[in-house]
Amino acid sequence: VNKGLVVSSENGDFTMNLGGRIHADSTTHMNDDLQKRSNGDPAQAVSGTELRRVRLALRGKFNRDFSYNIEADWGGNSVSLKDVLVAYDATPNLEITVGNQKHSVSMEVEESSNDIMFNERSLLSALTLPHFDRAMGINVKTMGQNWSLKGGVYGDAVSASGNGADEGGGFGVRATFAPINESGQLLHLGASLGLRKANDNNSLSNGKTPRLRYETTNMSDLYLSDTGSIAGFEEIQLSGLELAAMHGRFSAQAELGQADIQRDGGSDLRFNAHYLQLGWTLTGEARNYKGSDGEFKMLKPRNNFDLSQNHWGAWELALRLDEVDLEDADIQGGSQQRVSLNLNWYLNANLRILFGYSRAYEVESGPLIQNGGSEEADNVDVVAFRAQMAL
Amino acid sequence: VNKGLVVSSENGDFTMNLGGRIHADSTTHMNDDLQKRSNGDPAQAVSGTELRRVRLALRGKFNRDFSYNIEADWGGNSVSLKDVLVAYDATPNLEITVGNQKHSVSMEVEESSNDIMFNERSLLSALTLPHFDRAMGINVKTMGQNWSLKGGVYGDAVSASGNGADEGGGFGVRATFAPINESGQLLHLGASLGLRKANDNNSLSNGKTPRLRYETTNMSDLYLSDTGSIAGFEEIQLSGLELAAMHGRFSAQAELGQADIQRDGGSDLRFNAHYLQLGWTLTGEARNYKGSDGEFKMLKPRNNFDLSQNHWGAWELALRLDEVDLEDADIQGGSQQRVSLNLNWYLNANLRILFGYSRAYEVESGPLIQNGGSEEADNVDVVAFRAQMAL
Amino acid sequence: VNKGLVVSSENGDFTMNLGGRIHADSTTHMNDDLQKRSNGDPAQAVSGTELRRVRLALRGKFNRDFSYNIEADWGGNSVSLKDVLVAYDATPNLEITVGNQKHSVSMEVEESSNDIMFNERSLLSALTLPHFDRAMGINVKTMGQNWSLKGGVYGDAVSASGNGADEGGGFGVRATFAPINESGQLLHLGASLGLRKANDNNSLSNGKTPRLRYETTNMSDLYLSDTGSIAGFEEIQLSGLELAAMHGRFSAQAELGQADIQRDGGSDLRFNAHYLQLGWTLTGEARNYKGSDGEFKMLKPRNNFDLSQNHWGAWELALRLDEVDLEDADIQGGSQQRVSLNLNWYLNANLRILFGYSRAYEVESGPLIQNGGSEEADNVDVVAFRAQMAL
Fold first, then answer.
1. B-chain residues within 8 Å CB-CB of C167?
2. Is A126 helix (H, G, I), strand (E, B) or coil?
3. CATH no. of C30-46+94-390
4. Chains contacting B with at least 3 CB pairs below 8 Å?
């Protein structure tokens, strides 16, 4: 029921259901009277409202062993294909997936935006998302109750057109193991490795610029850390380590990531990022962890919000510390640390409301500085509200 | 059934249904050999065929008190998000709605394009639609059998990107009361007030130009009245009064609207528009009025079209007189009057065919004039055909 | 079941079902180190992966005699409306269809990309698809068990905007007859005629360039035959003849097409194309032919793929020879012949995998030549893989 209503054939070999997702955001920045270091042009965050994510998904099963997902996002009145794939469950422990799908790297990338405890992903995503988000490819996954091993090879991300050269490609592989995985008790270990090659023009054939950066919110157009376009971009390798734990209402999750970039006519580059996040369910529920995926799923409230019964759903506090360093050799992408605090209200299995605050500090050597001076663009604050509906 | 087939959980607390809409248009202009007043360039209407509206909507209910709507339009092969919202029915008389939705102003804006009696909205929409259509926001509504009071605050409309400044915002509030509201007998009174502020750049951060204008059809690219971009646009206030009545097969509806614009470095502007429309159901059915929304819904034929039973559905004649004046101070947007006549055929609850004719007359001081001369662009005719399917 | 799961009202007068389509492609070119004949610029095919087609379709029936289809494609992250129409079954032998739909020409155009035996349509589509694909219009069809006659008039294809002149338009009419149409035995004859007029600017008001050409794959941006933009394009007439036959596991299909173009200020043009294709179902199934549509539908395997039962679905070999000649008067569009070979694996009614190879040879006088020389761009090879899911 919480995944939308399912239409099923009598024997259950054929099913179909429709999913949907609305993330309606309102964001405000403070201390964002900035200018560009390079030329003094003003640079201010765009604050306001937006439909961050609006998705429909048609999912189903056919001939017992096959399933599919066709999911697209219309946020900002443009189309962005998400999971568009066909899966074959060869055995209960072996799944082959063909189509547009996430690279098999990083716990945080694999977790759904419906399920993470913050309005935006961590600074680690400056290393992961630009080149290791979804792409056309084949994933092979083998898994058990408390472990998973998934690897895949991929072409380029969906693009409206090529750019005169054959596509690049890549691979990703991720392994997770949860030596402790009982009700409300968890110890999770994970590691992943990804690789992506640019095409013969040292560019990405989906039209994206080869660079690493982090936008404060999806609509702000404000990047406190940004390498700019990396000339001669040949290949990026992403390595990551994961650690997570849960004890009843308390959970913790951390990742270390490192990106190694080879350039045609320039020294190699190495960038780092990491995050540590802590969750505390004020109303006592434990979070949901799925051992065969090696990831957290959305919290389900014990009692759904219902005024007539004086039930108030679940409430969660989350704290995250993250850091990214995009400085190496001639690339001055800047570095920053950040603290994020979220108060999340889960009304029921389909609806939650997020109140988020974050402050970027120790912002150094990045593309932006304080307005009218030479001081660093420090202490930029973001206050974010999200109403989230998910089927 | 007429709203699409519904899948429901056993206790009815969860439902899901899919809606859709096709408006397939064919339009022809006459007396449209015009030129621009400013530079003499030719200006002719584009006549032809188009998919005016093609929409899918996923709607449903969850946890009894919550509902959602995800609706998008693909007409012209581009995405335009429509109602994308989550609603909470706090009590039977109180509803809170979060997401992308119409401003709470003007009966004609609130009525669906599926339900109005004409191919295009009235000249009043030159004042309403440019700045008071859908936007991200929160509406609160309280209502009874024959009255409604809805108000909301909104950010900007959905946009693909910001433009370097924080979004503007606005509010809208509308009250309706129907002292007579019985089967086939109606007296409706309404009033609404809307306000929208531009952003700090005196522009709309959704990339739209701040201006008021009216296009003869959605594809014509012909504007007989058009203020052009209004420099220094700071704030627009919209005031409206509504009156409607129904007696059996006859109905009438009228609105007065006034737009007051404040400018940064220019005198204030005031523009006016109004319409009066009459409906006559030749086959005798009364139109449907929903008192808790304060609006008309689509006519339902008594007998659905069925050749085998010699049933011919419902037929409706509609007449509209409207006028807009976009002249004030230094803004020469022109003024026009128009008469529109529609013959509408309702085959069943899902299908209707519209035959529309309109003539714009008393067109004065607008951006277009007769070709090769200095005469006003008078007596432009539009003949329009629409096949409409709605679920 | 193979058309998606259907929700139906009790008496069956109202139904609704959701369809979907995924074509996930990977393509590689060989011998594609080419350059432009005109200026020597390099011209290489873009090889790689893409979501060739990603579609959702909402289909249904209402009031017994009416049905609809709303289908859109999101491949390449852009919207392309496909069948968007309402149909009225006036009698069992008479159907009227209004909306966006295919021109009634050419067996190969009418057949679905889900059903044809090759990754891409034949070289004949260089004549048909540029001007006789889908457009807004009205089709009237009368048909029997083994014959069909369909004709329609159309405006222009869906476009985001006009271009300052009234739309052009066209018509298409196609007749098919199958004197033999029994289980596994078929003789099909068909003929079609289409006409399309450009608008008053000698252009197509949907923004497309008036020209004929053939792209080796949807993403390659490589055109071995291409007329370039045809100045003074006034009108194109398309004539076609069809012949098809089936004997058990063997099938054959051939079409001849001729395009006659009238120009404003240039001599008339005549271009020709044809193809012959042979199918051989290795696992013995006969293909499906629908006499009332005059086209082949997708093969259904006798035994669905199921490892546990040692079932391997259906396997099919297909061979196609095609040729196009875009040379006439001052238009140097080039000519080519091609051979295509496909091995297709039908796992079940919803899933098939295509392995395709093609070689273009006798490529002459076209826009591309061998790199660094003056030799013709001969023997360009394409290897293509497709995973196809269709509901």
1. 46-49
2. helix
3. 2.40.160.10
4. A, C
